[in-house]
UniProtKB/TrEMBL annotation:
This is Phage protein. Residues 34-70 are annotated as: Disordered. It comes from the Bacteria.
Length: 135
């Protein structure tokens, strides 16, 4: 059976993510197995437990992320740069450092609606995340 690298993420920019190696018939099956093993909501400690049937386990620190913002990106283990499938509610922005360095000045120079504090906050968060990826 093929082996896949499944990246489980709670945030759109992959700032809170974990990787698993999963054996499954298809990339979709590997991704769904990890999603099914992820708790819908954080526990009393504020952590979201993940426990795969083969014994792999970890926790994610969800912060203020809703349960429907969990997603997976699945890659063949022998082709780690080739995304086979993505499943879930999040859009993954998984930039390389050179790509992030090219995007950062564009984002920094973008005109933001100053009357909308939500837009400003989201753009500032995106800029911080892209700056971290650019390092």
């Amino acid at each position: 059976m093929p082996v896949f690298i499944v990246t489980l993420s709670e945030r759109q920019l992959l700032s809170d993510r974990v990787n698993f190696q999963v054996e499954a018939e298809t990339a979709e099956a590997a991704g769904q197995l990890v999603l099914d093993a992820t708790a819908d909501e954080p526990n009393e400690s504020g952590l979201r437990p993940v426990r795969l049937p083969d014994g792999q386990k970890t926790v994610l620190e969800p912060g203020d992320v809703d349960g429907n913002e969990v997603s997976v990106s699945v890659r063949p283990v022998d082709q780690p740069d080739a995304v086979a499938t993505q499943i879930g509610a999040c859009w993954h922005l998984d930039l390389s450092a050179p790509e992030a360095r090219r995007l950062l000045p564009v984002l920094t120079g973008a005109i933001v609606d100053e009357d909308d504090p939500v837009t400003r906050a989201l753009c500032a968060r995106l800029a911080r995340q892209v700056a971290n990826l650019a390092q």
